[in-house]
Every structure is written in C-alpha cells, then in structure tokens.
C-alpha cells in the first residue's frame, strides 16, 4: 500500500459535516456530502442544456429542482459504488476510511440510505415532462454498471462520462421535448470533459490502483497523460462549439466559449501528474469550469 504523504483521504470530517451528530456523520460521508464537487459536476451538464435551449429564465425553478436531484442522486451513486467496491476500498489508502470500508456503516444500513436518497430523486423526477422522465430513467442502467467498469476496461472514465453527462439530455428534453443535434453535441462534449477531469482525478491513485488491479485512463496513458487530457478537453470544446452553432450559427456566439477554453488549457498546462494534491485541486477547479460553460450557454440561449 502506498505511503505517499500527498494522498488526500476520501472522507473529511470538517465544515458542516463536523457539525452533524456523530450518528449521522457516517451517512453524510457515505453520500460524499463532504465533497460537493461531485454533485456540482453532475449538475452542470443539465444546467447547460436548460440554458442553451433557452429555458433558464422561464424555468429557473427547474434548475433548482435539478440541483436538489443532483445532490441526492450523486449521493445515491456514491453509496451504490461503495457497496460494490467495499472490499477494494479497504486496499486503497485514499478510500480505506470510507464508512463501509471502515465498518462505520453496515451493509444493510447503506442499502436503506440508498433507498432514501433515491426517493428524493423520484420527487425531482416528477417535476419533469414525460419525455425527460423516461430518458432520466434510462440512465439507471449506466449507473448500475459503472462500478464494474474499472475491473474490465482501461477506460472507466468513458463510462463515467456517459453517466455524469446524462443530465444534458434530460435538461434539454425538459425544455424542448424532442431530440436535436445541439443536444447531442452538448452531450458528447460533456462526456469528453468528464473523461478529462476524471483522468486527472485518477492520478491520485496510480500506485494503489496498479497494485490492486483497478484500471483507469490515467494508468493507460502513462507518461502521455497530459497530452491525453488535452485531447479530451479540445474535443469537448469543439463539440460544445458545434452545439452552440446549431443554436445560433454566428461566429460571435462561439466567443462565449473562450473563458472555459482558457481555463481548461490552464488545467493541462500547469498539471503536475506526480502530485496528488495538485491533481485534486485541478479536478476540483472544474466546478468553476462548469460555471463558465453555464454562462456561455446562458448568453447564447437568451440571444438565440
């Protein structure tokens, strides 16, 4: 097991988590409420789609519902992932403190907590139109299969990209209940964005992942990881530009992507692949990247 002092534990007992009663704290940690970056990253693609389709102002309430759903379903996904990975998590330094792996939460209690979070997600689902509801339910197959991908492919980040980007389809259809090329391009761009930032995230666990047999794009890319992330991010920006072009075929509209493109380039150009803390900070900076993309979609959607 790695003794790298730069490893950042996967659970944090500070902030609002530290204010919770001791009995509730493990459940908050199990759902990763101590790490809000996860639900921000799940939320942004859906918010982009609502904004780019022109519905941000009229359906601002839907954006708030989606935010609640992102918090609940990201938490549910983490609980399910930890149920599946509880034995592997015991072998990885960063994840051995997770509530299931450490024994702070029983397997039965974890399943009950998962059900509660899914019920919150169901309330949010009922706020959508029928088309968006059906598409949202379609993501469950992808979510269920994701924890097993790291065992069978070097590119589990691609599967995660499909899962975490699914909100782009749901958000679009919640405003415009029919499939369109702009929606597809936005979804594809989000997938490559996720592959890029999750490859950065995986840099924290290279040694332990290799030891226990967990596969990742970071391990597969090896010394070419920075170039690989650059390719993923460039593909994301090109796909987003295509989505914007379908909504508003104007070269000036594409300028809205300049801030996020510069931010993603900064991530790659300053990334230190051997520094786990730097990788975590770059990964977390994608919360801000998501905001920049939301502003771009908002401007284009309102003008379109």
Short description:
This protein has 304 residues and is mainly α.
Name of the CATH class:
Mainly Alpha
Residues in helix, %: over 70%
Q: Could you give a short account of the major beta sheet? A: none
Kindly report how far apart the N and C termini lie: 54 Å
Radius of gyration: 19 Å
Helix-strand pattern: HHHHHHHHHHHHHHHHH
> How many runs of DSSP E, i.e. beta strands?
0
Q: What count of structural domains?
A: 1
Superfamily (CATH H level) name: UbiA prenyltransferase
Structural class, from secondary structure content? mainly alpha
Question: What do the pLDDT scores average to?
Answer: 89
In percent, how much strand structure appears in the residues?
A: under 5%
**Global morphology:** globular
User: How many alpha or pi helices?
Assistant: 17
In the CATH hierarchy, the third-tier topology is known as: Tetracycline Repressor, domain 2
Uncertain residue ranges = 1-10
CATH architecture: Orthogonal Bundle
Structure overview:
The protein has 304 residues and is mainly alpha-helical. The protein has a single domain (16-303), classed as UbiA prenyltransferase (Tetracycline Repressor, domain 2), CATH 1.10.357. The chain has helices at residues 16-19, 25-30, 37-52, 60-89, 99-102, 107-125, 130-152, 156-164, 166-175, 181-202, 206-212, 217-221, 225-247, 251-254, 258-270, 276-284, 286-303. Helix 9 (166-175) packs antiparallel against helix 10 and helix 10 (181-202) packs antiparallel against helix 16. The protein is globular and about 55 Å long.
């Amino acid at each position: 097991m790695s003794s790298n002092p730069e490893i950042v534990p996967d659970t944090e007992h500070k902030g609002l988590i530290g204010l919770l009663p001791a009995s509730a704290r493990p459940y908050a940690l199990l759902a990763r409420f101590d790490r809000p970056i996860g639900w921000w990253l799940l939320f942004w693609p859906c918010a982009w789609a609502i904004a780019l389709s022109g519905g941000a102002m009229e359906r601002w309430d839907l954006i708030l519902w989606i935010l609640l759903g992102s918090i609940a379903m990201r938490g549910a996904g983490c609980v399910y992932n930890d149920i599946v990975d509880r034995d592997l998590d015991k072998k990885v330094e960063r994840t051995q403190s997770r509530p299931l792996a450490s024994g702070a939460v029983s397997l039965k209690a974890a399943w009950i907590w998962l059900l509660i979070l899914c019920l919150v997600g169901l309330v949010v689902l009922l706020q959508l139109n029928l088309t968006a509801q059906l598409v949202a339910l379609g993501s469950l197959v992808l979510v269920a299969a994701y924890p097993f991908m790291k065992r069978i492919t070097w590119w589990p980040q691609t599967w995660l990209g499909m899962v975490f980007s699914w909100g782009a389809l749901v958000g679009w259809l919640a405003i415009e209940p029919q499939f369109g090329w702009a929606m597809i391009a936005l979804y594809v761009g989000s997938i490559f964005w996720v592959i890029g930032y999750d490859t950065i995230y995986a840099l924290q666990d290279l040694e332990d992942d290799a030891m226990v047999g967990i596969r990742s794009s970071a391990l597969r890319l090896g010394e070419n990881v920075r170039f690989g992330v650059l390719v993923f991010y460039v593909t994301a920006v090109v796909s987003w530009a295509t989505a914007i072009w379908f909504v508003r075929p104007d070269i000036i509209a594409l300028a809205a992507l300049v801030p996020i493109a510069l931010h993603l380039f900064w991530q790659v150009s300053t990334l230190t692949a051997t520094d786990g803390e730097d990788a975590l900070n770059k990964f977390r900076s994608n919360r801000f990247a998501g905001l920049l993309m939301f502003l771009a979609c908002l401007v284009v959607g309102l003008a379109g």
